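Task 17 of the worksheet. Students: predict the tertiary structure of the chain below and write it out as structure tokens. Keep your answer in the requested format; marks are given for formatting as well as content.
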Amino acid sequence: MFFTKGQHFLKTLPDLRADLPFSPEVFQLLFSIDQERSKASMEALGRVMERDQGLAVRVLHMANSVYYGLQSQVSSVMRAVLVLGLKEIRKLLLLMSVRQLENKLPPNCFDLNAYWQHQVEVAHVAQALARHSGIEDPEEIFTCGLLHDLGKLIIVIHHPKHWQGIQNLAADKNIPVHQAEDVYWGLDHALIGALTLKYWFLPTSLTEPINWHHAPDLAQEHAMQARVLRLANGLMHMPSEAAQTPVYVGWEQDLKHLRLAPQIPFALAREVLRDEKPAAFLHGMGIPSTRSPLASKLHA
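Model answer:
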């Protein structure tokens, strides 16, 4: 339909480095630090972050939120970096980067509250699935969950009319959005999000699971992480009346590869949705939390 538009869009993605709300120095340093316990490196990161007053305020706000439950108030970025640790600071900075993009959204064309509730729930469920399956670094999979639909935001910001066309096609054909995207212009939001993150200097351990979270068989190095992401995403997209039935092609395959009994994903999702962590995380972001349609069924 609009394949030329899609190809042109891909060519413009490197320009999205300009969308970074922070200096590229912050991101390059953020992912060049290998040792969680390298105090000198963490202090260097803290000093770079302190140069950006807006960044400092947002980091402190989130660090002092109910989500982290720290015993005492954190009053400096340096202290936040040392107390929360590298993985949490990475997560916060990436989250803040995406939230900065919201300022570029056209009015009244995208439900941000619903978007973020889905991202946060998928992140928590994916982390729980990864822990249960013994997959390395569940915290990184959490970050993948937070960012897995970034491509949708990018499409809405740069091509709102095409996003509406994709939505209409998905509704008319009764197909998932990622399939409608492929029919509409030959690429999907997973690829767009992954390429954006690549141009933001993120490692393949994050970009590859996001790129293939609708087709994990195609992932080269991080297929298991992509499967976890697809499973969590599928669970959170499941309509309440369809709970505890396969809801996407590849469901049984993902369970087999992750060595999960069919009831386990539902039990883990139920536990996550009963927990206050997702709501607390959303509260720290300043986003109201509502009860997921699936939650009622899973809680039964």
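Marker's comment: The chain has one domain: 3-20+107-299. The radius of gyration is 19 Å.
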